[in-house]
Design a protein that fits this description.
Helix content: over 70%
Keywords: Sigma factor, Transcription, Transcription regulation
Protein name: RNA polymerase sigma factor 70 region 4 type 2 domain-containing protein
GO molecular function: DNA binding; sigma factor activity
Order of helices and strands: HHHHHH
Structural class: mainly alpha
Pfam families: Sigma70_r4_2
Number of strands: 0
InterPro entries: RNA_pol_sigma-70-like (IPR039425), RNA_pol_sigma-70_dom (IPR014284), RNA_pol_sigma70_r4_t2 (IPR013249), RNA_pol_sigma_r3/r4-like (IPR013324), WH-like_DNA-bd_sf (IPR036388)
CATH superfamily of the largest domain: Winged helix-like DNA-binding domain superfamily/Winged helix DNA-binding domain
Mean pLDDT: 77
């Protein structure tokens, strides 16, 4: 590379291609997992458990959609796209400290749902 600008352009293009490939792999994996869950026989896991699983997923989606925009972006990039906090900060052009604050806020929003889900699972296990 003759100039730093050309090097940065080259680097950016290849980083974008790498990110696209990673997103494609992730999308294929998620689709495969959804098909696996949908294909489970009700008699193997129980119809009630399958219904409970689907309900929990819908509740998680509601919590994610209810997050403030930037908080949701940080959460999705970090937890779903598996980017590090430093990568999220660079991608969104915010400080790593703000990434940590957004993640903390998101986890606070998830706390009641997680607590309820854990209590339900504990009660189910005790009943069995």
């Amino acid at each position: 590379m003759d100039t730093p600008l050309a090097f940065l352009r080259h680097l950016s293009i290849h980083r974008a291609i790498d990110r696209w490939r990673a997103d494609e792999r992730h999308a294929a994996y998620v689709l495969e997992e959804e098909q696996d869950v949908a294909g489970l026989h009700a008699d193997l896991i129980g119809e009630e458990r399958l219904l409970s699983y689907k309900q929990t997923v819908r509740e998680l989606e509601k919590v994610i959609q209810g997050l403030p925009t930037r908080c949701r972006e940080v959460f999705v990039l970090h937890k779903i796209h598996e980017m590090t906090q430093d990568e999220v900060a660079a991608h969104l052009n915010i400080s790593r400290n703000m990434v940590a604050k957004h993640l903390s806020r998101a986890m606070i929003e998830f706390a009641p749902l997680l607590r309820t889900t854990l209590q339900d699972k504990t009660a189910t296990a005790d009943a069995a």
